[in-house]
Amino acid sequence: MSGDIIYDTNFYATLEAEVNAFREALTKRWREEVATAIREGHTFTTGFHRFHAPYGEDLWDYWDPINQIHILYGACEVIAWAQGDQEGEVPSCPGRTSSAEMGSSPAMTYDRDNNEVAVPQNVDCGMNSIMQSVEYWAYGEGSAILSKLPKFDAHDQRAIEGAQQALLAIGGALGLRSAGGSDFSFDPSSNADLINKVDKLIGANGQDADWYLAWTGLAADTFKDGFFASIAPTLGNQAQIAAGIHNLYSARGTIIQEMRSGSLKIVGDASKALDETHVVTTDLNPVWQTFQGMGTALSIGGSWNPVLGAVGASVQLIGIIGQNFAPEAKNTEYAHEIEAVMATLWENLDEQSDDLFSRENDYNNGIHSLRDTIFGIDSFNLEFYDLTENTATGSGSREGIHVNIATVLELADTCFECAEIYEGQLIPKIGDVQAADASLATEDGSEGSADPKVKALVLEYREYLRTACGRLYVAGEQILDAARSYAATDAEHAAAFRTAMADWDEGSAPGHAHDWARDTDRSGWEVPIPGAPSYATDTTPGGADEGGPEYETEATGG
Fold it and tell me: Out of the domains of life, which is the source (predicted)?
């Protein structure tokens, strides 16, 4: 196999076909070995890993002295067929005890009871039944191998790639960029619309202005910043979460690819080694690739800062079988002897099984690392400052504060427009991510330790996006209400308000905005799980966020 991703969604059939080819190669080689052993008076192996009949198997008694006469002098047609090209079906041998090739047999011999008996012209040759048994044995060996191989049957790598692209689209809109060392094929395209709009909110008219402190509920109090200060860290953290989930999908896709390609290569190379005409050398192609760097690549927690000072984030992005997983090519040196081939084959299968266990463990540690990091981020830095219990009347002194009505309304309009981007462009892409749910599964199609956690985090991430969307809508409403309140202070302000509102093109916030604006529920993380990380007993989401505890959850005063 090449290093290309296997997109087969009926992979078990492909795997079974490869094992069937192995069965054929093993049957041919094994028949030759058995025929040669019988012809030379040696014993032979009847099984390696296959399931044996509980009471043994009844084979034709080729050790019987009379049958030995046929084997030595009768030019057994089945033995000749097995030692030849084995074309066609197993022949039926007439059982001659003499032949032109081997000469005439002795006239007398001894039977099993040591009685001297005359040698008949023919015996009932059972070599064809032994050859048929060899086929049965080889089939059993193939079945043992097939049961050992990881299946990864219906897993859809294109769906996983689709989920990755959806996450990159979300992350790109939030300012995500590929960090140095990222796999070249994963470079999110930025949605400049959202970034340009939020720049208005965190610029001189937003974070650095005094007007909203006096005229809106968009600050906790006169000593702490509020909604506008939460914009940059929220977008940065949401972008990095998208990247972290993206990398987890890469991990699952890489496990699928590694096991699929490895299975085909391990079995395929064994088939070649069983071919007596195949010259086995030490420079066989790599059997499979193991991605030793997966655990390191998925150590999300220490790779990014949960509190950012600017919009955007630079995160190392990992592709399926990407360079960040540091693939290591493993080679095998199959010997020509059938016993050595089978022994090496099972060594490789055992090693592959160990690799699979390690990869699944890395994948599980990766989701725990990401969840630990997210749990440590305060809602302020994750889904904007909570405005749901604020008033629009402000908490500071209004004396000496002069407001440009048009500027204030532009900020309100921008909040609405940002909310609409969240609702119309970002949140729906979670459905594209979930389209790969069925492929987040272990080799037998069931959910492992990590897969349900990844799916749950995708749903939780959608709630962060919804909360942010709702809070943007609420912020727009509160800024609009603040402008209306300011306009009521005198006729000049009222006229400016009416003029600015003449071009107002935003409708009211949707009915679900206030429901979405509530904190995302993270109580499900607190359920004690044996062996779970620190968040399992931590009842304070955001407690590890250095910036979070400095902010209150709602405005004071009114």
Answer: Bacteria
In whole angstroms, give the CA distance from residue 482 to residue 304.
37
Question: Measuring CA to CA, which residue among 466, 458, 459 is closest to residue 426?
Answer: 466
Cβ 62 vs Cβ 38: under 8 Å: yes
Return the top range by mean pLDDT from 55-59, 194-198, 461-465, 510-514: 461-465
Stretch 153-165: mean pLDDT: 96
Integer Cα distance of 491 and 303 in angstroms: 55
CA 294/CA 318 separation, integer angstroms: 10
Please give the structure tokens belonging to residue 348: 């490789």
395, 211 in Cβ contact below 8 A?
A: no
Give pLDDT, residue 556.
Answer: 42
Check: CB of residue 254 under 8 Å from CB of residue 295: no
Question: What are the pLDDT digits (tens) for 176-201?
Answer: 988 877 886 677 776 678 888 888 88
C-alpha dist (Å) from residue 318 to 34, 87, 179, 244, 544: 51, 50, 10, 9, 26
CA 189/CA 166 separation, integer angstroms: 11
For 6-38, what is each residue's pLDDT tens digit?
Answer: 999 999 999 999 999 999 999 999 999 999 999
Geometric angle at alpha carbon 321, from 317 and 325, rounded to 5°:
65
Distances in Å between the alpha carbon of 96 and those of 59, 75, 100, 102, 104?
20, 8, 11, 11, 10
SS (H, E, C) 53-113: CCCCCCCCCCCCHHHHHHHHHCCCHHHHHHCCCCCCCCCCCCCECCECCCECCCCEEECCC
Q: How far apart are CA 114 and CA 218, in angstroms?
A: 109
Mean pLDDT of the chain: 83
What DSSP assignment string belongs to 396-417? S--TT----HHHHHHHHHHHHH
Task: Map residue 289 onto helix, strand or coil.
Answer: strand
Per-residue tokens: 54: 């509980």
SS3 290: strand
Of 550, 509, 317, 330, which is closest to residue 419 (Cα–Cα)? 509
* pTM, full prediction: 0.88
Do 476 and 203 form a contact (C-beta atoms < 8 A)? no
Lowest-confidence pick of 67-81, 411-425, 512-526: 512-526
Task: Classify residue 351 by burial, with Cβ atoms within 10 Å: 0-12, 13-18, 19+.
Answer: middle
* pLDDT tens string 289-322: 677 777 777 775 445 665 555 677 888 888 888 7
Q: Is 557 helix (H, G, I), strand (E, B) or coil?
A: coil
Which two tokens mark 424? 């119309």
